[in-house]
Design a protein that fits this description.
Elements: H1 9-65, E1 82-86, E2 89-92, H2 93-108, E3 113-117, H3 122-135, H4 140-144, E4 160-165, H5 181-189, E5 195-197, E6 213-216, H6 220-225, H7 227-230
Antiparallel strand pairs: 1-2, 3-4, 4-6, 5-6
């Protein structure tokens, strides 16, 4: 005999309705709580992303505000991050293998890719900037179009290099370098080895076109060094 048979039908229906209503209310409350929680988490995630984006933009704007004559400030690489590439030329250790490989691949095509310059200390950059300015009878603003002021050169990081064509030495550090086989090869393949042209024609920094000047962006550390430069939209 079923115990439920002893309970009048009306009471049994009322009891079932009460349980169903309570269960419904619990489910509704749980759903509401879950919805609120998910909304809060989504809002927190959005705020974090917005804060990160704003901080990144502020950092980029600060770097641009610290620019001098179109050039951005760069730290000097510590000695333990530099390696000797060739007599008198040091580069950041992260560059060494990449440039060697690139140089080797170019040589296989009969191209003499030559490293002309790498790391420069701030003191050396000071000599280059002020002495050349004096020799050429230029103002600092005029000289800045061709050379970065001390403390504002990509070369100080060890990640920037000047490249020439060994078969056409008369084009070294000249715009005519763009007509050489070495430049044409680099323009096509340099990105494969994580090198990019720092100052292409009509660049956003307002620096004179330098087809020989390339920088390495193949590591996180290198990307951080040039993050502000890559985010430039327009210099004031």
């Amino acid at each position: 005999m079923n115990y439920q048979d002893d309970i009048p039908l009306a009471k049994r229906i009322k009891s079932i309705k009460t349980i169903t209503t309570k269960t419904f209310l619990r489910i509704a409350l749980l759903s509401l709580g879950l919805g609120v929680t998910l909304t809060l988490l989504a809002n927190q995630s959005f705020l974090r992303q917005t804060k990160y984006s704003n901080n990144s933009n502020i950092s980029s704007e600060k770097s641009q505000n610290k620019s001098l004559l179109g050039h951005l400030p760069y730290p000097e690489a510590p000695n333990n991050e530099l390696v000797l590439f060739s007599p008198g030329i040091y580069v950041h250790k992260d560059i060494y293998e990449n440039f060697k490989e690139m140089q080797f691949r170019a040589a296989q095509k009969g191209i003499a890719l030559k490293l002309l310059s790498g790391y420069r200390s701030i003191d050396l950059q000071r000599q280059i900037f002020y002495e050349n300015k004096s020799i050429r009878n230029q103002t600092a603003v005029e000289r800045s179009r061709d050379s970065a002021p001390p403390g504002y050169s990509e070369h100080s990081t060890g990640y920037a290099i000047d490249v020439g064509d060994g078969d056409y030495p008369n084009t070294h550090f000249e715009v005519e370098f763009e007509q050489t086989p070495a430049f044409k090869w680099m323009k096509r393949f340099a990105s494969k080895y994580h090198f990019v042209l720092s100052f292409p024609p009509n660049n956003k920094q307002g620096v004179t076109y330098e087809p020989w000047h390339w920088r390495f962006e193949g590591t996180v550390n290198a990307l951080r060094k040039f993050e502000a430069a890559n985010k430039i939209t327009k210099f004031k």
